[in-house]
Design a protein that fits this description.
Pfam family, one: Mur_ligase_M
Helix content: 25-40%
InterPro entries: Mur-like_cat_sf, Mur_ligase_C, Mur_ligase_C_dom_sf, Mur_ligase_cen, Mur_ligase_N, MurCDEF_CellWall_CoF430Synth, MurE/MurF_N, UDP-N-AcMur_synth
Structural class: alpha/beta
Strand order of the largest sheet: 9-10-8-11-12-13-14-15-16
Number of domains: 3
CATH class of the largest domain: Alpha Beta
Radius of gyration: 24 Å
Number of strands: 22
CATH superfamily of the largest domain: Mur-like, catalytic domain
Keywords: ATP-binding, Cell cycle, Cell division, Cell shape, Cell wall biogenesis/degradation, Cytoplasm, Ligase, Nucleotide-binding, Peptidoglycan synthesis
Largest sheet: 9 strands, mixed
Enzyme class: ligase
Distance between the termini: 36 Å
Number of helices: 16
Shape: globular
Organism: Salipiger aestuarii
């Protein structure tokens, strides 16, 4: 498949080409580049121009550059004034030529899982384009758009932010027909004037809505009025979702089971029954928002609900897995909840609620009684209230059912000190130090949650726990 010809890419970017080439994809990383990709030499931690020669050697069709690197012939280059601007131009051109109905997704919690739910739900009723990873920033959104084939039916674009003023230009680039806001919660508070400021920034996703577009908004938030005012100001059709009776799409009964969540609800006058294959009220509510998006796009409601039940969270985002500790005695296992990709007070509270509802197994390990154990790391970018927000975790109702809490990082030391002594596990400054202890801390029958901000590298704790597992005898490994 040809995604970009040299002529099309030059016309889109206003750049200069020196030969005729065809690219089947767009890449910013030589490590994941596929043969035939257009390599984009972005300047971030390192200058992508330093890797152009390697990209071409690895089979790139061409490279998008702002200067000709030493030793590289110009025949397979697309020369532009600025690489970031060129990537944005490619994204804009791809958006203009597609027939797809476009969904924009933002929120403090649940952006990526909702994007993946939408990939599954919309994929049951057409061809879907969405980023494989959480590409939601100033280069991730245009990259996702630049990779979009013209003939897909739906596109799902995740849009994030760290500072004020980031969402509106990305939304204008994506031009969504439907914009979903999952939740607004304390996150990146260091850059904003409280929760209202975060809400106004999230609501900027409506700035890019296509005329006649739909705003799908969580209707249960303290800042919902801010979101609704912003949607009305853009002339959007509005669909609210949540658990309160006033919502257009509402969950009337949420049953959290050990491995699934079953939801009964209403969509206007129509009854709803659906499940998500992971426990957690937050997944159930975001799933309701996803079904509202699908409805706004004209999708069949029954097919959408059935497809939602086939979605599973990915690594680092609530994935649950059983780890066998003995190749023969397969009852000697523990359950891992890998939610290590990121954390803020809302998402951590939701994850602790999932752990509190889990069912450890007794009489299979050294301790005879299975335990609920949490490894949690610092929540970043919370501003002046960061210490209080970490201490407050000790008072969450879910903590009553959690047996041991291990804490990583200087801020989580505040929680560690606030916990009752019987719940207080280890505190370490780093994830590497904590990872060295897990083999001695865990036992068969335990259910273990791992969660923290990405920079805390709690994935290293997850990896250490996974290394405890063995393949059961007769298994495939």
């Amino acid at each position: 498949m040809t995604l970009w010809t040299a002529t099309e890419a030059a016309a889109a970017t206003g750049g200069q080409v020196f030969s005729d080439w065809r690219a089947g994809g767009v890449s910013i990383d030589t490590r994941s580049l596929a043969a035939g990709d257009l390599f984009v030499a972005l300047t971030a931690a390192r200058d992508g121009h330093d890797f152009v020669a390697q990209a071409l050697k690895n089979g790139a069709a061409a490279a998008l550059v702002s200067r000709i690197p030493d030793g590289v012939a110009p025949d397979r280059l697309l020369l532009v004034g600025d690489v970031q601007t060129g990537l944005e131009a490619l994204g804009r051109a791809a958006r203009a030529r597609t027939r797809a109905r476009v969904v924009g997704v933002t929120g403090s919690v649940g952006k990526t899982s909702s994007k993946e739910m939408l990939r599954t739900v919309l994929g049951a009723q057409g061809r879907v384009h969405a980023a494989e990873k959480s590409y939601n920033n100033h280069w991730g959104v245009p990259l996702t758009l630049a990779r979009m084939p013209a003939d897909v039916d739906f596109a799902v674009i995740e849009i994030g932010m760290n500072h004020p003023g980031e969402i509106a230009p990305l939304s204008r680039l994506a031009r969504p027909h439907v914009a979903l806001i999952t939740i607004v919660a304390p996150a990146h508070l260091a850059a904003f004037d409280g929760l209202d400021g975060i809400a106004r920034e999230k609501a900027a996703i409506f700035d890019g809505l296509e005329p006649g577009g739909t705003a799908v908004v969580n209707g249960d938030l303290p800042v919902t009025p801010i979101l609704l005012d912003a949607a009305r100001a853009k002339g959007a059709r509005i669909i609210t979702f949540g658990e309160a009776p006033h919502n257009h799409h509402r969950a009337t009964d949420v049953t959290i089971c050990d491995t699934t969540t079953v939801v009964q609800g209403r969509a206007w006058r129509s009854p709803l029954l659906y499940k998500v294959a992971v426990p957690g009220r937050h997944y159930a509510v975001n799933g309701l928002g996803v079904l509202a998006v699908a409805h706004a796009l004209g999708c069949d409601r029954a097919l959408s609900a059935a497809a939602l039940g086939r979605w599973h969270p990915g690594e680092g985002r609530g994935l649950r897995e059983k780890l066998y500790l003995d190749p023969v005695e397969t009852q000697n296992s523990l359950e891992l909840i890998d939610d290590a990709y990121n954390a803020n007070p809302a998402s951590l509270g939701a994850s602790l609620e999932v752990l509190a509802g889990a069912h450890p197994r007794n009489d299979v390990g050294r301790h005879k009684r299975g335990r609920r154990i949490a490894y949690i790391g610092d929540m970043k970018e919370l501003g002046a209230d960061e210490i209080a927000l970490h201490r407050a975790l000790a008072d969450l109702p879910a903590m009553d059912k959690i047996d041991i809490v291990h804490c990583v990082g200087p801020l989580m030391r505040e929680l560690w000190r606030a916990l009752p002594e019987l719940k207080r596990g280890h505190w370490t400054a780093t994830s590497d130090a904590m990872a060295q202890r897990v083999r001695h801390d865990l036992d068969a029958g335990d259910v273990v949650l791992v969660k923290g901000s990405l920079s805390m590298r709690l994935a290293r704790v997850v990896d250490a726990i996974r290394r405890m597992g063995v393949s059961p005898a007769g298994g495939n490994g």
